[in-house]
Amino acid sequence: FCATLGTTPCCSFDKLLELGPICNKENIWMHIDAAYAGSAFICPEFRHLLNGVEFADSFNFNPHKWLLVNFDCSAMWVKKRSDLTGAFKLEPLYLQHHHQESGNFIIKQDYFHWQIPLGRRFRSLKLWFVLRMYGVTGLQEHIRKHVRLSHQFEHLVLQDERFEICAEVVLGLVCFRLKGSNELNKALLKSINEAKKIHLVPCHLREKFVLRFAICSRTVESAHVEFAWQHVSQLATDLLKTWGQNHQQQ
């Protein structure tokens, strides 16, 4: 069973405290996918979203999505490592050596037993450099800044009665749309992306076509958010003028 913390469409969070006990009782492997949101748990104020993680058998998040690490870099924890090594372990004679595992201990050279590929890239080095450069405080501020900027954009959207917010803004993602049909919002997205000033990716929420504004860049500032909203707002104004005329003619 895969529980998600920070879903891709709208950054929603499964309730681990409700799902976890069921999985444990029924002996179902519970994996937690926190690919995007996992980086935010470096901040104490967001750790309540992790409540129930103790029920999980494995947990994954991607530092390359929000923790300033270049693609690709995923971090995975497993509660009982023998579950992995028991499934993937492969020991032909030509791979055996005198530093083999001792008892339940597996040395670093034998991490190929934890996965399907025999070899692996040294992704941990670039993660180590980021941790050393920014430190805990620097990474926390990076996350908190993006969350503040997402709420800034949310506030701008709420001030315009033509638009609506479609999901709670928890981290750095704002789901919004023009009040109206899916076709209207598809047309707005088309005009936004064709203008090539900013780029938005959509999703469907409760059968509604929704625009997603994600704070992603390391260098983003409040002025960029203001610019993005003014751009979206102006394109919406232009679209609504022509949209109404076209539909009246039809």
UniProtKB/TrEMBL annotation:
A cellular component term, taken from the record's GO annotations: cytoplasm
Cofactors required: pyridoxal 5'-phosphate
Subunit structure: Homodimer.
InterPro entries according to UniProt: Aromatic_deC, PyrdxlP-dep_de-COase, PyrdxlP-dep_Trfase, PyrdxlP-dep_Trfase_major, PyrdxlP-dep_Trfase_small, Pyridoxal-P_BS
Keyword annotations: Catecholamine biosynthesis, Decarboxylase, Lyase, Pyridoxal phosphate
Residue stretches spanning the membrane: none
Protein family membership: Belongs to the group II decarboxylase family.
Entry GO MF terms: aromatic-L-amino-acid decarboxylase activity; pyridoxal phosphate binding
Pathway the protein contributes to: Catecholamine biosynthesis; dopamine biosynthesis; dopamine from L-tyrosine: step 2/2
Full protein name: Aromatic-L-amino-acid decarboxylase
Organism in which the protein naturally occurs: Steatornis caripensis
Its EC number(s): 4.1.1.28
Stored SUPFAM superfamilies: PLP-dependent transferases (SSF53383)
PANTHER family the UniProt entry points to: AROMATIC-L-AMINO-ACID DECARBOXYLASE, GROUP II PYRIDOXAL-5-PHOSPHATE DECARBOXYLASE
Residues annotated as signal peptide: none
BP GO terms, sorted: amino acid metabolic process; carboxylic acid metabolic process; catecholamine biosynthetic process; serotonin biosynthetic process
Gene: Ddc
Sites of N6-(pyridoxal phosphate)lysine modification: 65
